[in-house]
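Form 12-C: Joint structure prediction
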Amino acid sequence: MNLNQMESFRAVMLTGSVSQAAKQLYRTQPAVSMVISSLEKQIGFQLFERRKKRLYPTPEANYLYAEIEAIFSRINDVSQTLQDIQNKQYGFLRIGCMPGPSNFFVPDLVADFLEEHPKIQASLQTRTSEGVREWVASDQYDIGLTELTERDSAIDKEVFSLSCLCALPADHPLAVHEVITPEHLDDEPMITLHPDHSTYYALQQLFQSSGYRMNVRLQTRFFIPALRFIERGLGFVLWTRYPPPVIALMHSPVRWCFAVLILMSA
Amino acid sequence: MVFRRFDSDVCLKLGIIYPANKPRSLITQDFADQLRSRIQALDEQPEALFAWGKAEDS
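Section 2 - Result
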């Protein structure tokens, strides 16, 4: 029994006549009649009794109809799912995220996204950058937000080069400057990320080549604890921002603010 | 809190990443678009990031 036969049979059952079924299916009456006759021959028993131009379903037809109706109900479900997929309302999104953004804007972003896509399910997992890269590479996340290294060959990536922005208390003496230079930071007590972080090495090189002293007072593994020191009024932070123009041209001008250093208040 | 530009070449490489050579779903692409936009918006106004954290704590 094929789908065409099921469709014709179902239409006759629903309408009670071949002519009405033909109208419903946008086919001719003889075509539908032929399908039903052919089906009865194929299955070897009668589906309808013909009396005075009316069709009356046999008990066997009712049994068959219940099965076919379930199939059509499932087909309707598939159509709805297809429509949901087209409207981006179906699926499961697995997001891996490094700790900093996981504590700030990403939950807000995910909440907005789920509001816009009420049928979608999502998972947001916070991992170290290395963890996020590994899990994305092994296809356990669909998308990740992470710091990058030179060794990330097992992932596809959009790269944002982010340079520094200094965040500091509004009443700090350095706040009068529009641009903070390494000279301003000479021997200032700082809080930095851990020494194996790429920005630590770059800052160390910067201070050494400039002839200024990098006075590390405190190190943190993640940015969030560093930010707490700022909130407690203990210092100020350098965030990444504004790469040189040539980098902006190469990588699309996206620069995200991110803590790199914290200077302790004098 | 105020923000000031730091005059150096020190930069951080951040990435939106995906499994390599794998087709991305429509919802993954849509979320990536919104993530990209949000990063750009925060870049334009980094103070908003910190203000959000303070609002949540209060």
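Section 3 - Comments
DSSP finds two helices and two strands in chain B. The two ends of chain B are 16 Å apart (CA to CA).
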